[in-house]
Amino acid sequence: MATIILCSFNKTAQVTSRRCFISHLKGLASAGQSHLPSCSIHSTSLTLLTGTRWFSRGTGVRFMSHGTAGRATAGRIRRGALALCGAAAVTAAAAVAGFLANASHFQRAEMAKKIPQTVEEEEGDILEKCKGLMSPPVTDVNVLQRRKGEMCTKMEMLIMETQADFCRALEKVDGGRFKVDRWERKEGGGGISCVMQDGKVFEKAGVNVSVVSGYLTEEAAKQMRSRGKVLKGKDGKLPFCAMGVSSVIHPKNPHIPTVHFNYRYFEIEEEDGSKQWWFGGGTDLTPIYINKGDAFHFHNTLKEACDKHHPQYYSNFKKWCDRYFYIPHRGETRGIGGIFFDDLDGPGQEEVFSFVKSCARTVVPCYIPIVNKHLKDTFTAEEKDWQQVRRGRYVEFNLVYDRGVKFGLATPGSRIESILMSLPLTARWEYMHEPAEGTLEAEMLEVLRNPKEWV
């Protein structure tokens, strides 16, 4: 689910944004909770990445990090910021998946101390980049040009480009066109929802972007206090910005998997002007029938992106994904996973952003080849029924366990249409459904109950 943050708090600039952009681009197409099985963790430590450990003490969590910005105090701040991201980002209409096991247990990821430097392409002219987007950016193009070097601008352009690249690729496969729906949030910011329904290939395809800003609500502040930190705002106010891109694709053919991805950024400003920030996201695949070639291609594409930055990232974030997308009452994962991470805040913004960019740029190459491979696959009525049952499981996870969706549905000012974009047009629930032994359906279920290593 997705979230977008507008790091500018200049309301005048925001008001003039659309008018200024249109004058420049006239004719632009309008087109964690990490599931740790229900248990109580006491005085436990787990090593996630080199140099990072997390410790649980009763109902509180203390982070011990080494060599990263923020250190102990900032760690507690980010812990609260993560809770806010779920609420604030989703309030903007994108269900931001926070990584929480439950109200008491929390896990965070941290980048390695050193990441190999990669050669980045020039940022380029923002006005020129905007010509290829599905819609003008949420933030005024003049503001983006003026703040070209700031992370909020870089991330907004990345999520806008990710949306456009994925939508164009899906349109090419399907032959249909996305409906582009711009919306505004009165509390600050807005978003662009792109949805294609009942196409030739895709029953429902949604790719959302949101960029929101404002001040922490009292409810968000309470959640942060419940996690052991009270942030000091100016005159009792804490400015924040959040942004992200999210997508869920439900194909008609049961041999083409469902895919989901979400990449987001969050920033909060304290009384002294200092800022706390983090990135999160991931990509995961939900096939109806297992295909080992598809699984290898999907996971290997993600692994190659992760390996550019650290050899442990794929392994750790793959495990994290399997834990997060888990349906406890069914005892099975939602799909065959991919990668998932949250609260990435070190060693520096540029290094983390480079990693997130690598991941975001895999969404087309990791999925479209699989779609093309199965375009002409035939299927039976029984296989279509199994797809409907699996979609029911997808809905169960999103509505019962996905923290971002739950926050969004319960938060005033949230855009329900965009939050529920992730749900399929059709699904099915059969009482006590269990596939017969030795069938392809049973093989799929065994993989979901016992996650595999695909690469």
TrEMBL record:
What Gene3D superfamilies does the annotation carry? Coproporphyrinogen III oxidase, aerobic
Keyword DNA-binding present in the record's keywords: the answer is no
Q: What's in the keyword line of the UniProt record?
A: Heme biosynthesis, Membrane, Oxidoreductase, Porphyrin biosynthesis, Transmembrane, Transmembrane helix
Q: What class of enzyme is it?
A: oxidoreductase
The biological process GO terms on file are:
protoporphyrinogen IX biosynthetic process
PROSITE patterns this protein is in? COPROGEN_OXIDASE (PS01021)
Top-level division of the source organism's lineage = Eukaryota
Pathways involved:
Porphyrin-containing compound metabolism; protoporphyrin-IX biosynthesis; protoporphyrinogen-IX from coproporphyrinogen-III (O2 route): step 1/1
- One Gene Ontology MF term: coproporphyrinogen oxidase activity
For this UniProt entry, which segments traverse the membrane?
Answer: 81-101
Gene Ontology annotations for the cellular component aspect, listed alphabetically: cytoplasm
- Does DNA-binding show up as a keyword for this record? no
EC number(s): the record gives 1.3.3.3
Pfam families the UniProt entry points to: Coprogen_oxidas
Reaction equations catalysed: coproporphyrinogen III + O2 + 2 H(+) = protoporphyrinogen IX + 2 CO2 + 2 H2O
Subunit structure of this chain's protein: Homodimer.
* UniProt family annotation: Belongs to the aerobic coproporphyrinogen-III oxidase family.
Please identify the protein, giving its name as recorded: Oxygen-dependent coproporphyrinogen-III oxidase, mitochondrial
Write the lineage as a comma-separated list: Eukaryota, Metazoa, Chordata, Craniata, Vertebrata
